Amino acid sequence: LPTLLKDLAQDPRTVRRRALTISAVVLLVALSFGGAYALQAQKQQLCAGARQAMDEVWNLDTIAAMRQSFHSTQRSYADDSFARVEKILSAYASDWMAMRTEACQATHVRGEQSEALLDKRMNCLDRRRSALRALVELLAGDIDEKVLDKAVPAALGLAPLSACADQEALLAAVPPPADPQVRRQVKDLRERVDQARALEKAGKYQEGLALITTLSKEAHALGYFPLQAEADYSLAELQRKSGDSKAAQTSLHQAILAAARAKDDHLLAEISSNLVYVTGYQLAHYSEALELSRLVEAQVARAGDDPVLRADLTYNLGVIHAMQVKYQQAEQHFQSALQLQIKSLGDQHIKVASTLAALGNVNKRMGHYQQSLDQYQKALAIWQSVLGPDHPDTAMTSNNIGGTLMQMKQYDLARKSYQRARTVWQNTVGEQHPYISMAENNLGQLCLHEKNFGQALAHCQKALAVSTKVLEPGHPYFEHHLTCIGVAHYGLGHAQAALAPLERALKLRLAKATDPLFLAETRFALAQALWDTDGDKVRAYRLASQAAEAIAQTDPSGEQSLAQCKDWLQSHRKPPVKVRP
């Protein structure tokens, strides 16, 4: 029997049938694997367009044009700024491509995401690419030094890509218009809004304002709320930065309503936080802004309690408290904002530097000079890392450090910081620039502290000459220059010469909501000059009394200034008020 079975197994017909069966199975398996592989490859191919899409915006030719554009400004820091911008934008482009590919694969390869969500993610990413294109085209064009100075912050200010992965927010938003023609109009208008935003980020406010004013009207005519909110918000930002705070407040109200109708919780909270800033800081309506902030806190919570949004609101509240001379509350808000920023943005972000600088300002006003100095120096390290050591904005922090060192009576170190800032500004923005007038004024103030009135007068007269050439007559710098000149004249024994600049400075400071301590400084200087020239002594005594009262109420570190005012009041008998017969 074994032999028979062996013989049957060698039967050619049996062997042929078995071979055919095995071949069929192998072929079926191969076809199955091949088909699956082909299908998988086809799906992968569907998601392979990210690089081509980005190459239309960010490519070697564009990068070369941008390098030449920066270099042509002939600023000493231009090439360094270009290298920093290129690094930021290249990383943004790379992250964009990775997210676009991931979004596509989530639907077409892994099958874990709906087509509807994919469309929303792609629309979001298209918006980010449009904003990138607008900025790149601007920076690769014919730029000036003002645009150059803002190039790095503008690149860092591109909207984060993370929002394009926020499933809940994307699904809740109002969908694009159903009508294809209206959809095309929305797309075209959004790209132009992105151009206006790029102009705003680059500091070209008037040009951006002219463009966005028209675009806002067109957006209202289309009636698509998401676009309307974006256009009105951009309009408000350009109005605010152009100095029209009241118009900005009105535009923000319109943008808030449109964002609510668009069901965009994140944008609604962001716009509302900016309204708190405009209302409280720029319009000085403190109570209104603080009341509004309670509502905005709820909006931030509804938007997912985004730490960046909460930090922005908290920072704005710190600014408002500082404006009210409530320095302890301001410090608490700035510290809270700082912790949120470090946690969400990292400890080297420009927002962290700005908040550290704000803390430095507040602590200087409270007389906490060492804390102020530490915070300024941390801010300076970040600015140097992000912008470079020779950037004009970096020099501003060196200037602030000089102010703190002056209050600490470390006059030699203060002078070095002031001179360092002035040197950077001379090499970057030139001699005829507001930064130079600021630097000269600060050096003059330092000389006043040292009782070197002759040098103080020279510095502040130069500051006034520069400001007269480059600033509008009502600019706040004039108040500082004129007060410095008046105090220097008085210190030199020229009380009569001190009167005119001090009277002019007082008039400028009374015409606006100026810092009460600056106002006190001018009042006390004018009081002394009036008395010594046998002027209106009743007025002189009143001015000195007002100065003492302001210092006592608003300056925790003003013991020396307050004592000086009180000593003067005690040594000068209050004159009787003449009563008309």
| Unreliable stretches covering 5 or more consecutive residues | none
Task: Please indicate the percent range of residues in DSSP E strands (runs of 2 or more).
Answer: under 5%
Annotation field: number of helices: 27
> What is the assembly state of the chains in this entry?
single chain
* Secondary-structure-derived class: mainly alpha
Shape assignment: elongated
Number of beta strands: 0
In round numbers, the mean pLDDT is 91
How much helix is in the residues? over 70%
Order of helices and strands: HHHHHHHHHHHHHHHHHHHHHHHHHHH
* CA-CA gap between termini: 153 Å
The largest pleated sheet is described as:
none
The rounded Rg comes to 33 Å
Keywords:
27 helices; 0% strand
Task: Give an overview in words.
There is one protein chain. With 581 residues, the protein is mainly alpha-helical. The chain is 80% helix and 0% strand. It is built from 27 helices and no strands. It is elongated. The model has no long low-confidence stretch (mean pLDDT 91).
Q: In a nutshell, what does this entry contain?
A:
This protein has 581 residues and is an all-alpha fold. The chain has helices spanning 2-9, 12-46, 50-55, 60-71, 78-108, 115-139, 145-156, 167-172, 180-201, 205-222, 225-241, 245-261, 265-282, 286-302, 307-323, 327-345, 350-365, 369-387, 392-407, 411-428, 434-449, 453-470, 477-491, 495-510, 516-532, 537-554, 559-571. Helix 14 (286-302) packs antiparallel against helix 15, helix 21 runs antiparallel to helix 22 and helix 23 (477-491) packs parallel to helix 25 (516-532).
